[in-house]
Design brief:
The chain crosses the membrane at residues 77-98, 104-121, 128-148, 168-190, 202-224, 253-270, 282-301, 338-357, 369-386, 406-426, 464-491. The protein is of the alpha+beta class. It is built from 30 helices and 15 strands. Strand 1 (2-5) and strand 2 (8-14) form a beta hairpin. Helix 5 runs antiparallel to helix 17 (391-399), helix 6 runs antiparallel to helix 18 (406-422) and helix 8 (159-189) runs antiparallel to helix 16.
Length: 758
């Protein structure tokens, strides 16, 4: 019964052990589904399930019939045109990161958007090239291209080899994209999109920041127009920097000046768009404006001839026929493809989650995997490269009023127009301008360096993950860096659970609240009772740490006490059998003064016997181990009589830890220290029973619902002979207590002063 009194409450209930609670409250029999049950449901078929499956695989069938034509169409058209212009420019720019001709970036921008229109569940993200993924595909492409016959290892090969090398790079990039899509598609159909949870926010932030640094370094050769050898081994970023700065005197000034001007203008206007986004009807399309101006200036003043600048070059109108991927590339890039698949999905899903929460609509992670996978497969078949979503492009689509993926369809039409009709107009555009546009999109990622200070204040482990991920990725490269970062992140989780912050609890305010006794002043500990809390799972890796922390908390090793007592008992029993030890009402009388060392050696040679329970039934007297023993036999004295283990935060035990925990409990029980486990749930108890944890020594009676139940039980047990409870209460074993928030305890039948202690 709960009786509220203002901001206080009184609870009247029996003191419950787990056994007593189950006796008083009948437990409902529940059927836990087995694997076969889940499989039967999965394989069952009905018209309703078939309809749900179709709508799940084709989300467009759900939202398109409900499309509000008059309300949404104009907004989607405006948003689609703005996003399409950005998609064209980013497709061209990000193709340079893949080290293939810029025109192939348009294929990536087109096919990814079209496929996502039919299969994606987000209404606001813009599918297509993403700089980090482009960089990862480019890393795999460069590594395989190094073995291509005739490749000199530089960015500028001879004219005879240039075309065939570019074709090979395009084939490699397309093959990597197809395999990445297959992996995403397989994960989606197997419904295991949850694997992305192993990429934490800190890890993704550190990885994308480091990848942005790689993108920045990779674009220097286009900005300075230098011949830079390709490197793909660890520390390659430093080799690229050395190559750039060792030949800095060969810089093409026209490319450098153009890139700096474009980068400055784009950065300024992006900042204006960000600061005045609430006042501007649509963001200023600065990338489109500078591209048109730069293309016109380059064409009008013939920069290619006069200043020998590098331009986009020939752009063939239309699409190339689809090609089958190179299976040999699959074998060489399986690791890269898995990393690309995971990073692409993680980025797309995180961005989509932001907009789904903002606009309140559901998002299906597994269907997102299917949409991205199909997009990459189709894109790779048509010689494009892997895509996800670019943060800046998705922000344009959402901020310009995009309501649905109809905006994505309009943007795809814009890209299609460029591919089929007006792509030739971009041929005079300098590659340094595309490099500057790519760098202009990195500001948000590079600004993530500020995360270090924020994470350091909030969580040191997350800060360490961020810094380590960033360093690993910069030094080892994108593929190895991501793998090492995930391994390090999992290691921190193991470290946190392997070395949990165990604590000793005490009562606060004489109430039913128990907190770490180091944190508060008004703390009360029942004499001879220790309450120990473990805040993590207990498993094979931390059972030793748990044991040591428990020993530190109680102040002694129970195994050492047990062995000392068994040694002393063997000596006392031997003296008693030889008639050298007599018992009188006043104590022991011993007729010898010393004991032979050989007895001690005998005990040490039978160490396993010393770990057995102490048995004094054959002696005509009881031994008080905290009193003076004959012959000055020394046994450590302990004041602890009860130990409470708070397992409310222990989610599971494995077999190894169960064996270790049982050994610990047995050691305490054998030295007459009562042990109680509190706060465990029914599944935990069921697992203990299944592994035959309880026996004649470790009994189920040690389980209690709460710490306070165990404390009251101990208090009643120790004061039982002097208690004032009625005989009927003693027989029933159910004592009702009233718990006041002012700290007092009283029997429901008797008025006890508020100062009464436990």
């Amino acid at each position: 019964m709960i009786e509220p009194f203002g901001n206080q409450y009184i609870v009247a209930r029996p003191v419950y052990s787990t056994n007593a609670f189950e006796e008083n409250h009948k437990k409902r029999d529940r059927h836990h589904k087995t694997f076969l049950d889940h499989l039967r449901v999965c394989l069952s078929c009905s018209p309703q399930k078939a309809k749900r499956t179709v709508l799940s695989l084709f989300p467009i069938a759900s939202w398109l019939p409900a499309y509000r034509l008059k309300e949404w169409l104009l907004s989607d058209i405006v948003s689609g045109i703005s996003t399409g212009i950005v998609s064209v420019l980013q497709g061209l720019a990000f193709a340079l990161l893949v080290t293939i001709p810029p025109g192939y970036g348009l294929y990536a921008a087109f096919f990814s958007t079209i496929i996502y229109l039919f299969f994606g569940t987000s209404k606001h993200i813009s599918a297509g090239p993403f700089p980090i993924l482009s960089m990862m595909v480019g890393a795999a492409t460069v590594r395989l291209a190094q073995n291509f016959p005739g490749n000199t290892g530089s960015s500028n090969n001879s004219t005879s080899n240039s075309s065939s090398l570019d074709d090979y790079k395009v084939t490699v990039a397309a093959s990597v994209t197809v395999l990445s899509g297959v992996i995403q598609l397989a994960l989606g159909f197997l419904r295991i999109g949850f694997v992305v949870i192993y990429l934490s926010e800190s890890l993704i932030s550190g990885f994308t920041t480091a990848a942005a640094v790689h993108v920045l370094v990779s674009q220097l050769k286009f900005i300075f127009q230098l011949t830079v050898p390709s490197h793909e081994d660890p520390c390659s970023i430093f080799k690229v920097l050395y190559s750039v700065f060792s030949q800095i005197e060969k810089t093409n000034i026209a490319d450098l000046v153009t890139a700096l001007i474009v980068l400055l203008v784009v950065s300024i206007f992006k900042e204006i768009n960000q600061r005045f986004k609430d006042k501007l009807p649509v963001p200023i399309p600065i990338e489109f404006i500078v591209t048109v101006i730069a293309t016109g200036v380059s064409y009008g003043f013939d920069f290619q001839t006069r200043f020998n600048v590098s331009v986009v070059g020939k752009m063939n109108p239309g699409f190339e026929p689809p090609n089958a991927p190179d299976v040999a590339v699959f074998q060489e890039t399986i690791g890269d493809c898995f990393a690309i698949a995971m990073v692409g999905f993680a980025v797309a899903f995180s961005v989509a989650s932001v907009y789904s929460l903002k606009h309140d609509y559901p998002l299906d992670g597994n269907q997102e995997l299917i949409a991205l996978g199909l997009g990459n497969i189709v894109c790779g078949a048509f010689r494009g490269f892997a895509g996800s979503t670019a943060l800046s492009r998705s922000a344009v689509q959402e901020s310009t009023g995009g309501k649905t993926q109809i905006a994505g369809l309009i943007s795809a039409i814009i890209v299609l127009i460029v591919i089929l009709a007006i792509g030739f107009l971009l041929e005079p555009l300098q590659r340094s301008v595309l490099a500057a546009l790519a760098l202009g999109n990195l500001k948000g990622m590079l600004m993530q360096f500020a995360e270090i200070c924020r994470l350091w204040r909030k969580d040191k482990y997350d800060c360490l993950i961020w810094v380590t991920t960033c360093i690993f990725t910069i030094v080892l490269g994108l593929g190895l860096g991501l793998a090492a970062s995930v391994a390090f992140q999992l290691l921190t989780i193991v470290f946190r659970t392997q070395f949990p912050k165990c604590s000793t609890l005490a009562n606060i305010g004489r109430s039913n609240i128990y907190k770490n006794k180091k944190d508060y002043y008004d703390m009360y500990e029942l004499k001879g009772v220790k309450i120990f809390r473990c805040p993590s799972p207990i498993y094979f890796a931390n059972i030793g740490f748990f044991r040591q922390k428990l020993i530190d908390a109680v102040g002694f090793s129970p195994l050492r006490i047990l062995r000392k007592r068994n040694k002393a008992l063997r000596k006392i029993r031997k003296l008693q059998k030889q008639g050298l030890l007599q018992v009188t009402p006043k104590g022991f009388i011993c007729t010898v003064d010393t004991i032979k060392d050989s007895d001690e050696e005998l005990d040490n040679n039978q160490i396993q016997v010393l770990d057995e329970p102490i048995d004094t039934t054959d002696l005509p007297f009881q031994i008080d181990w905290n009193d003076q023993l004959p012959l000055n036999i020394e046994v450590p004295k302990i004041s602890l009589h009860s130990l409470i283990l708070d397992f409310s935060a222990v989610s599971f035990l494995d077999v190894s830890s169960m064996r270790g925990l049982k050994s610990i409990l047995q050691e305490f029980i054998r030295i007459k220290v009562d042990v109680y486990i509190v706060g465990v749930d029914d599944d935990f108890i069921e697992k203990l029973n299944r592994y035959e944890f309880f026996d004649g020594e470790v009994k189920t009676s040690i389980l209690f619902l709460t710490i306070h139940d165990a404390v009251l039980h101990i208090s009643m047990k120790k004061d039982y002979s002097t208690s004032k409870f009625k005989p009927s209460q003693e027989k029933d074993g159910k004592i009702d207590f009233t718990i006041n928030t002012n700290g007092g305890l009283r029997n429901r039948e008797y008025q006890v002063p508020g100062e009464t202690k436990f």
